[in-house]
Amino acid sequence: MTMQRRNEPWNCQWCEAPDTGFTTRNGPAAAVSDLSADMARPGLAFVSRAPRQPEARDTQPVLIVTTSEVPGYRITQVHGDVFGLIVRARNYFSNLGAQFRTLAGREVAGYTTLLTDSRNQARERMWREARARGANAVVAMRFDCNEIGCIMSEIAAYGTAVTVETIQTAGNG
């Protein structure tokens, strides 16, 4: 990369269009319009994007169990292993406060909340991956927790994504 001086001619590294550089017109409010004008000279433009739509909520339930089988259901298809992972860190002052609490032997409520929220997020990410694969259940779900560098916690939820269906018996079907 080379340093470019103001009003020194140069060529765009992608399209090789000649340009004389970005010139300011006094004041920060003009910066965006200046940039737009300077981009328009060689035929470049900002890409307008449609307003971001809220993400559709998947309301289809996914049964998550820690057992290898689900009583009353039959596994009809195995979609493979799925997991959800999250790494979280507390800030320095929270860690300092936690150290004082451990001296008194009390619960560190901030960490309890952090780990509870982290487990729920990891489980939700695993659930989303299972749904994306077409599963309606996760069997043999487990959590794994590790510490990274004494300042971060890694939480992983993992299991096997499957499709289950209710077992039909003579009395109910």
Task: Report what the structure shows.
By secondary structure, the protein is α+β, with helices and mostly antiparallel strands. It is 27% helix and 29% strand. It has 3 helices and 6 strands. The chain has helices spanning 31-40, 92-104, 109-132; strands at residues 10-11, 18-19, 63-64, 73-89, 137-148, 152-166. The strands form 2 sheets. The protein has a 4-stranded mixed β-sheet with strand order 3-5-6-4. Strand 1 and strand 2 (18-19) form a beta hairpin. The radius of gyration is 27 Å and the shape is flat. The mean pLDDT is 77.
| Shape label | flat
Our count of helices gives: 3
Summarize the biggest pleated sheet. 4 strands, mixed
Arrangement of strands in the largest sheet? 3-5-6-4
Radius of gyration: 27 Å
| Strand percent estimate | 25-35%
Uncertain residue segments: none
Mean of residue pLDDT values = 77
Helix content: 25-40%
Secondary-structure-based class equals alpha+beta
For the secondary structure, the number of strands is 6
Q: Write down the secondary-structure element order.
A: EEHEEHHEE
Distance between the termini: 72 Å
How are the SSEs placed, and which strands pair?
Blueprint: E1 10-11, E2 18-19, H1 31-40, E3 63-64, E4 73-89, H2 92-104, H3 109-132, E5 137-148, E6 152-166
Parallel strand pairs: 3-5
Antiparallel strand pairs: 1-2, 4-6, 5-6
